[in-house]
Specification:
60 residues, mainly beta, 5-stranded antiparallel sheet, 5 strands, globular
Length: 60
């Protein structure tokens, strides 16, 4: 996975009916765009994320 600041991180729900989480990458802590990322979620919360296989990056 590769991301840049300003890209969107989308995380699909784990179970049927779970909503998709969406946030903006505000910091890239790995080398060459690799995880972990600091993400600002749509609810305003920020956190360190190690994306799993249910996540993908949408370039800005």
């Amino acid at each position: 996975m590769h991301a840049n600041i300003g890209d969107r991180l989308l995380v699909e729900g784990h179970k049927v009916g779970d909503p998709r989480r969406e946030g903006e990458v505000v910091e890239v802590r790995g080398s060459d765009g690799a995880p972990p990322y600091v993400v600002r979620w749509t609810d305003g919360h920020e956190g360190l994320v190690f994306p799993g296989p249910d996540a993908h990056v949408v370039p800005r």
